Amino acid sequence: MQPFALADLPAEPWKNGGGRTRTVATWPAGAGLSDFDARVSVATIAASGPFSRFPGIDRQIVLLSGGGVRLRGPGIDHHLDMPLAPFAFAGEAEVEATVLGGPSEDFNVMVRRGRWRARVEVLRTARHWPGGAGGVLLAWRGDWTVLGDAADAAPVRLTPGECVWWQNGGQALACAPAGDAGALLAVAFDSVWKWALALLHRVQAAIVLEANYHEHPAFRRRSLARPAPVRHAGPAGR
């Protein structure tokens, strides 16, 4: 993983003139807007207007800075005005964005529904983050150190505004802030079948744990013991 600065990425103006987008990474690498499986970008929204529609795409958006926007569409009425709080919606929805108090900067994650799933969180304390099939880390507040669990892994240090991305990962990443006020945007991708398989393994493990618990001798003694008879006070004088 080689860190790079978000500010060094080229900003592409929108066709309607309402903003600009910096593409952080796409899967597969080099994919365009019509053939990506996953995409991460940072956009500046300068004017109110409709969002582009992406049929078959699941989207998540996170306010990074600025006044935010109000998102309205069928079944959607959301004020994106709280920084670092992910909001998910369907890419095919007709969404109108109304600027709230000036331009804003937003972190965007998109995945092709039925193929990939995206996990998006904001880390504030030391955490292990799954490598998955690919992912992105963006340091937003404070300095961060990222270390893979491979024996030959070297630590990567990120300053605010710096990113790393990876593909075909699989290894967990240890992420640690340098201070108490850090914020690291973390994204992990996996194919849907891998996610479903992992969920199945967790369910199977829970079933085995439950069965072992009920077969434990101490539990069986408690469950088979007959309850003591309830004694009621008799009439006075008896």
- Looking at the overall shape, the CATH architecture of the largest domain is Sandwich
Multimeric state: single chain
Extract low-pLDDT stretches.
Answer: 230-238
**Helix segment count?**
2
CATH topology label of the largest domain: Jelly Rolls
Order of the strands making up the biggest sheet: 2-3-4-11-6-9
Report on this structure.
This protein is mainly beta and 238 residues long. The chain folds into 2 domains: 4-191, Jelly Rolls (Sandwich); 192-224. Helix content is 13%, strand content 45%. The chain has helices spanning 192-215, 217-224, and strands spanning 4-5, 12-13, 19-27, 38-45, 49-50, 57-66, 69-73, 76-80, 87-90, 96-99, 104-112, 116-123, 127-129, 134-141, 144-148, 156-158, 162-167, 173-177, 183-191. The strands form 4 sheets. The protein has a 6-stranded antiparallel sheet with strand order 2-3-4-11-6-9, with no helix packed on it. It has a 5-stranded antiparallel sheet with strand order 1-17-14-19-12. A hairpin with a 2-residue loop joins strand 7 (69-73) and strand 8. The longest helix is centred in the C-terminal third of the chain and has 24 residues, at 192-215. The chain is globular. The N and C termini lie far apart (85 Å). Residues 230-238 have low confidence and may be disordered.
SSE diagram, text form:
Elements: E1 4-5, E2 12-13, E3 19-27, E4 38-45, E5 49-50, E6 57-66, E7 69-73, E8 76-80, E9 87-90, E10 96-99, E11 104-112, E12 116-123, E13 127-129, E14 134-141, E15 144-148, E16 156-158, E17 162-167, E18 173-177, E19 183-191, H1 192-215, H2 217-224
Offer a concise description of the structure.
The chain is mainly beta.
